[in-house]
């Protein structure tokens, strides 16, 4: 680990000031400290933002939820309003990492999480994300766990967050504070496709700080859930995952929110699946015909072709679990 | 199973289930729910050096020390405070052997920077027994033979203490899931589950 | 002499060192924190083959706290004397920092010694190494092989050609890493020419002898201490290059050095279970009686040493009645580090193809897999011609089938469903050698009636401390808490490697012998002592129980050790026990039948083990509570081998791409459901004086094929490689 200076920000202004001067924010630290130890990350200054007043969950009258950036994964998952209103969020969180890591990691940090791509984590390997222009060792290497959606010639690394998949499905927004004020960015715009610049992962301006995540209100009743397929039953990243939220009335699906994890360079919104569902009556056939659209545009690599079928089946299964077979 | 989510009462607000420390931080910052309120005091002067002072409590004893900013809580415990019970299995948050309680919550000490722990209350495996009287979970590990080589055991036990406190002991299946952050390569899992059950039952 | 009452052996005694382990007081190698100890961090090569052309250490040396940076540029020439006694292999072990050659990805190329761990690790990352890379080969399937080891009986080719049923199958087994929770760690300290080492090792003597040979010093000048080992499963039997690095670093830095390998470095700094390609042809008649088998194996080894597992060929020769057998095993030298035995070495590898193929044959013929195995149960060892000492495999199957509910299994695959899950049951045989080796133990019984028993063996988790205390307690006639067993120190009496399931048989028999001697000394003292109630008694009629000697059948006539020794002004009695295995006139193995029930998600391919049962014929069970844990642990290891463990090499440059515990998956608690083990009551008196056959290895063998066979039964899909992944079953 490279040496660094350390400062604790007692308030938001101090944090932004430190951030503007090149300081790197640290909250739970579960990703950052790990990557610093691998020398993938080499910040000169760490700014501890844990004293900031960002540990809150508020619920709006219509059923939207604002989650402060420093709420831990544990607390967010267990929060009664989140459990009740957005089980997909609680499930995605509780299927992530381990109890210990969820006690440390925060909501803001979770969506800032960096990829598990082995070549990214190994500083002796070529990686455009870590070292722009050095190439991508994963494309011709071992890429079973890599992305099939949203990839580019420069990068095929999978976005690791489960939470971000649920948030993507729910049209969540990321609230940001910067020296010029605050703004709100849809999570789908916040997490960037790799394109030719995979080192740029979020639409953050220099020194900007995530303060909260807003989940907008959705029509009620909303049924939702998260399914994660992996090699072992716990403490592992997804091979494929599906976040599904459905609202029906009069026996017809009116709102469908579907996103996939473990398969994209960013959480992958399945708009074609959603369009197919809306206006139709739930049925086993509908789930499977909708799920067939899940892997549209997928580009498999040497070792992850199976993810196309696995994704479709994962989406189909979770549609059935959430939507029922009536 | 998905849960039907009714609309909550207007203005309903929940403090998240926060630990004591975080709750203090949260309450101290009333009105700070939005980040636009940039009314705060100026930042404390940044520590220019690559070392920091930290004052914390470990197993009831106060320690004030200067640490390299890079030093993890695990290395502070092991290399500086002589508390080698917490183990370094992977140093990357992937095994749980270094699990300790910080302010009552189980965390992996390998990914916790010591310099961040000013005022923290840390409990390690060495701090669980009451003199010669073992903690019920320590005794349960012996009774159930929930250990073989013993290397993951301190982390398993501290994690189990956290698991019991959290109330995730409703069924064997629940214990299995909530104890999955602690790898045991000797394969003692069924017995670890029984030990957690045994100790949870005595609460 | 009268047999001693059995009070401790066979009883469910709790682990005697349990208290130290649950309180964090047990000191493993890295827990040694002597003041003044410097920390070392190793720099690894980032190519698999070639030469080091540049090595810039200036930035590293400029780091505050750095004491030394050692590489081939400045390291002294080390003698590296021959040392074949310590599990070194044919070829020549890796010499660290002696030249510019790189033989595998991750080879140590430099070491940094610094006053703090943080400084050492950071400085190591600043050492800039330049290489001239040469094309490397790391793929077992495509590289040229060595000359084979062969075996033949009968005419397998002809028998296969005329067999009523013939199966030609190819199986692939992935490289696996032991991944004990404790990383390899070593603390080295020189006092003049004397070297003291705290090591993680399954054999203190192997570290001692290897370091003595490498540094060209007398083994008596090296002391190795290793009281606790945080799991090893075979990978801490040999002394690996990092031990030399630590000792060299301590010598160069002039102070004690601690070196703990990172988890990543465990994937190339120490050995692993090699990958195999196993081609198997079997022929049988229509009743399922095997007529021929042909085994063609390839396995990986390094370019500098040849690792050829003997055990991998044994089951193919002796497990089932087969008149015609040929075997050929070729090692394939690659630009990799050297493999090493891993739990159930060879046998567990062979069990996957053999037990899968037998299952395939049973399915082909419509015969129950257990019945097919019964039809091929041999009457003697067809490879050696020797009778079996004990072989109760039929009983294992009978008991197992009954306890597991095998009769509820619909023989037709893919017929049992539970919602989205396909349910299947599978079975496989387990077998492992009963190995024994010469050993010594010192026993000292003091006047308080407590005993200290010592042998330079090890306890990597199975419970050596406990089981030896049980043997000693009964042999001395005292309670387990009165016994202190010491191990893990080269100053103690000589012991063999703690591996191959030979510890209980070898050290146990030694401890028994030493304690018998001491007890007999006490009895002789008593019957010759006019003041003793036992004066004049027949020594052969005296037994000791609860620390009291008495005439068998007349408990009133006797006295305690304390009374006897105190009266005779004896502070203690002592003896050295020894054990030398007799020439075996029988084929000796431990056996087991392993049953697995799995659920496979019909659409998503996820495999979940629902329950397992192992029934074992392992001879006498000394410590049932701990033996049960061993068996459960073996099953957990086997679940890992079956469903997740796989070291992945990028063959472009020999890099291991999943060298961490987040991507090299081992089972977690959620993966492990109800597991049960049953040991058949009994003993094997031909095996060794205490009647044990060893159990730590056999409990892993057969688990993976039982799971694979259950997956076939659940899905109708036969997967002939390990691990079985979701994509194999979509």
What does this protein structure show overall?
The complex is a heterotrimer of chains A (326), B (203) and C (730). With 326 residues, chain A is of the alpha+beta class. Chain A is 29% helix and 20% strand. Chain B is elongated and about 50 Å long. Chain B has a five-stranded mixed β-sheet, covered by helices on one side. Chain B starts with 12 loop residues before the first strand and ends with a helix. The longest helix of chain B has 14 residues, at 153-166. The model of chain B is unreliable at 1-48 (pLDDT under 50). By secondary structure, chain C is α+β, with helices and mostly antiparallel strands. Chain C has 15 helices and 30 strands. The radius of gyration of chain C is 27 Å and the shape is globular. The relative contact order of chain C is 0.14. The chains are: A alpha+beta (326), B alpha+beta (203), C alpha+beta (730). Strand 4 (57-59) of chain A pairs antiparallel with strand 1 of chain B, so a sheet runs across the interface. Chain B: This is Xanthine dehydrogenase YagT iron-sulfur-binding subunit.
Brief characterization of the structure:
By secondary structure, chain A is α+β, with helices and mostly antiparallel strands. Chain A is 29% helix and 20% strand. In chain A, helix 2 links the parallel strand 2 and strand 3.
- In spatial order, strands of the major sheet of chain C run 3-5-1-12-9-10-11
The CATH class assignment of the largest domain in chain B is: Alpha Beta
Which fold name is given in CATH as the topology of the largest domain in chain B? Answer: Ubiquitin-like (UB roll)
Distance between the termini of chain B: 30 Å
Number of strands of chain B: 6
Which architecture name of the largest domain in chain C does CATH use? 2-Layer Sandwich
Helix residue percentage of chain B: 25-40%
Low-confidence stretches of chain C: none
Largest interface (CB < 8 Å)? A-B, 83 and 77 residues
Strand order of the largest sheet of chain B: 3-2-6-4-5
The CATH level-2 architecture of the largest domain in chain B is identified as: Roll
Low-confidence stretches of chain B: 1-48
Rg on CA atoms of chain C, Å: 27 Å
The biggest beta sheet of chain C is recorded as:
7 strands, mixed
Structural class of chain C: alpha+beta
User: What's the number of helices of chain B?
Assistant: 6
Mean pLDDT of chain B: 82
In oligomeric terms, what are we looking at? heterotrimer
Amino-to-carboxy terminus distance of chain C? 66 Å
Number of helices of chain C: 15
């Amino acid at each position: 680990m490279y040496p660094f200076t350390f400062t604790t920000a007692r308030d938001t202004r101090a944090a932004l000031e430190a951030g503007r001067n090149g300081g790197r924010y640290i909250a739970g630290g579960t990703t950052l400290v790990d990557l610093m130890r691998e020398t993938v990350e080499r910040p000169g200054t760490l700014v501890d933002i844990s004293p900031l007043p960002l540990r809150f969950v508020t619920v709006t009258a219509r059923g939207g939820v604002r989650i402060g950036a420093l709420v831990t994964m544990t607390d967010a998952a267990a929060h009664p309003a989140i459990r009740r209103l957005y089980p997909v969020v609680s499930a995605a969180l509780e299927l992530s990492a381990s109890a210990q890591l969820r006690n440390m990691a925060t909501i803001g940090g979770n969506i800032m999480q960096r990829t598990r791509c082995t070549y990214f984590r190994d500083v002796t390997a070529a990686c455009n994300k870590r070292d722009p222009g050095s190439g991508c060792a994963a494309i011709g290497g071992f890429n079973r766990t890599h992305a099939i959606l949203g990839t580019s010639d420069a990068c095929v690394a999978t976005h690791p967050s489960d939470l971000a998949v649920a948030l993507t499905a729910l049209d969540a927004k990321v609230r940001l504070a910067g020296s010029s004020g605050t703004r709100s960015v849809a999570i789908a715009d916040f997490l960037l496709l790799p394109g030719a610049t995979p080192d740029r992962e979020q639409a953050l301006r220099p020194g900007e700080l995530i303060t909260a995540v807003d989940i907008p209100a959705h029509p009620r009743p909303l049924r939702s859930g998260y399914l994660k397929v992996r090699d072992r039953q716990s403490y592992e990243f997804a091979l494929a995952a599906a976040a599904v939220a459905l609202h029906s009335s009069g026996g017809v699906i009116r709102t469908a929110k579907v996103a996939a994890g473990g398969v994209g360079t960013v959480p992958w919104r399945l708009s074609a699946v959603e369009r197919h569902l809306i206006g139709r009556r739930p049925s086993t056939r509908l789930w499977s015909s909708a799920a067939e659209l899940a892997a549209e545009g997928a580009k498999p690599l040497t070792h992850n072709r199976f993810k196309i079928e696995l994704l479709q089946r994962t989406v189909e299964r979770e549609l059935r679990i959430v939507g029922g077979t009536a | 199973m998905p849960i039907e989510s009714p609309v909550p009462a207007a203005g309903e607000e929940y403090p998240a289930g926060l630990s004591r420390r975080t709750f203090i931080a949260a309450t101290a910052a009333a009105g700070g729910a939005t980040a636009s309120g940039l009314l705060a005091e100026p930042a404390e002067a940044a520590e220019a050096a690559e070392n920091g002072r930290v004052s914390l409590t470990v197993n009831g004893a106060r320690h004030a020390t200067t640490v390299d900013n890079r030093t993890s809580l695990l290395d502070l415990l092991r290399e500086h405070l002589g508390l080698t019970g917490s183990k370094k299995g992977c140093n990357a948050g992937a095994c749980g052997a270094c699990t300790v309680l910080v302010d009552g919550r189980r965390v992996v000490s390998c990914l916790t920077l010591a310099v961040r722990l000013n005022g923290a209350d840390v409990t390690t495996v060495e701090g669980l027994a009451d003199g010669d009287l073992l903690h019920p979970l320590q005794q349960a590990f012996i009774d159930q033979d929930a250990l073989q080589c013993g290397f993951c055991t301190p982390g398993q036990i501290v994690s189990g203490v956290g698991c019991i406190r959290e109330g995730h002991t409703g069924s064997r299946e629940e214990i299995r899931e909530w104890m999955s952050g602690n790898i045991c390569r000797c394969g003692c899992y069924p017995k670890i589950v029984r030990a957690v059950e045994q100790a949870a039952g005595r609460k | 002499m009268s047999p001693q009452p059995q009070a401790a052996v066979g009883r469910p005694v709790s682990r005697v060192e349990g208290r130290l382990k649950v309180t964090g007081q047990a000191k493993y190698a890295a827990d040694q924190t002597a003041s003044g100890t410097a920390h070392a961090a190793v720099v690894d090569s980032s190519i698999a083959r070639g030469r080091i052309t540049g090595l810039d250490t200036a930035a590293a040396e400029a780091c505050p706290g750095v004491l030394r940076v050692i590489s081939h540029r400045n390291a002294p020439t080390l003698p590296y004397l021959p040392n074949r006694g310590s599990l070194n292999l044919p070829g020549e072990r890796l010499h660290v920092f002696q030249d510019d050659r790189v033989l595998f990805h991750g080879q140590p190329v430099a070491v940094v010694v610094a006053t703090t761990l943080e400084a050492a690790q950071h400085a190591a990352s600043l050492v800039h190494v330049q290489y001239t890379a040469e094309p490397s080969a790391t793929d077992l399937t495509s590289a040229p092989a060595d000359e084979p080891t062969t075996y033949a009986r009968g005419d397998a080719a002809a028998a296969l050609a005329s067999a009523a049923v013939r199966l030609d199958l190819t199986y692939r087994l992935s490289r696996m890493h032991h991944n004990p929770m404790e990383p390899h760690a070593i603390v080295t300290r020189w006092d003049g020419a004397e070297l003291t080492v705290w090591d993680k090792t399954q054999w203190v003597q192997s570290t001692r002898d290897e370091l003595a040979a490498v540094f060209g010093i007398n083994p008596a000048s090296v002391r190795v201490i290793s009281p606790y080992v945080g799991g090893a499963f075979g990978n801490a039997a040999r002394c690996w290059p990092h031990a030399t690095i630590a000792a060299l670093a301590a010598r160069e830095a002039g102070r004690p050095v601690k070196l703990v390998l990172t988890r990543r470095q465990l994937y190339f700094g120490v050995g692993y279970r090699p990958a195999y390609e196993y081609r198997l042809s079997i022929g049988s008649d229509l009743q399922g009686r095997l007529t021929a088998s042909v085994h063609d194996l390839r396995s990986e080894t390094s370019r500098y040493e040849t690792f050829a597992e003997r055990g991998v060929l044994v089951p193919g020769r002796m497990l089932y009645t087969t008149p015609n057998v040929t075997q050929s095993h070729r090692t394939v030298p690659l630009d990799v580090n050297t493999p090493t035995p891993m739990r159930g070495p060879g046998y567990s590898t062979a069990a996957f193809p053999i037990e899968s193929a037998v299952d395939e044959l049973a399915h082909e013929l419509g015969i129950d897999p257990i019945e097919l195995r019964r039809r091929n149960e041999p009457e003697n060892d067809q490879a050696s011609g020797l009778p079996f000492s004990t072989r109760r495999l039929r009983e294992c199957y009978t008991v197992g089938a009954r306890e597991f509910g095998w009769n509820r299994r619909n023989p037709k695959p893919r017929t049992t469903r539970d919602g989205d899950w396909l349910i299947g049951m599978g079975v496989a045989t387990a077998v492992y050698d009963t190995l024994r080796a010469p050993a010594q133990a010192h026993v000292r019984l003091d006047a308080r009636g407590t005993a200290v028993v010592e042998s330079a063996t090890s306890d990597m988790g199975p419970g050596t401390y406990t089981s030896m205390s049980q043997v000693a307690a009964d042999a001395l006639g005292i309670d387990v808490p009165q016994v202190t067993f010491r191990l893990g120190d080269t100053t103690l009496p000589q012991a063999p490697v703690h591996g191959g399931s030979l510890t209980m048989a070898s050290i146990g028999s030694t401890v028994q012998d030493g304690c018998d001697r001491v007890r007999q000394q006490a009895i002789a003292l008593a019957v010759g002592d006019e003041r003793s109630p036992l004066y004049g008694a027949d020594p052969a009629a005296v037994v000791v129980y609860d620390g009291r000697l008495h005439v068998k059948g007349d408990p009133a006539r006797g006295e305690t050790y304390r009374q006897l020794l105190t009266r005779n002004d004896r502070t203690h009695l002592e003896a050295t026990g020894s054990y030398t295995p007799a020439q075996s006139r029988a084929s000796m193995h431990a056996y087991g039948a392993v049953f697995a029930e799995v659920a496979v998600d019909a659409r998503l391919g996820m495999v979940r083990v629902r329950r397992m049962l192992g029934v074992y014929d392992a001879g006498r069970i000394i410590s049932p509570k701990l033996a049960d844990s061993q068996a459960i642990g073996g099953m957990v290891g086997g679940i890992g081998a079956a469903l997740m463990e796989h070291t992945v090499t990028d063959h472009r440059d020999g890099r291991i791409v999943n060298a961490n515990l987040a991507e090299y998956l081992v089972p977690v608690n959620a993966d492990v459901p109800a597991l049960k083990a049953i040991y058949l009551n009994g003993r094997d008196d031909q095996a060794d004086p205490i009647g044990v056959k060893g159990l730590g290895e056999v409990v892993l063998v057969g688990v993976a094929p039982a799971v694979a066979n259950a997956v076939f039964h659940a899905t109708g899909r036969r997967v002939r490689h390990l691990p079985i992944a979701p994509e194999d079953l979509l």
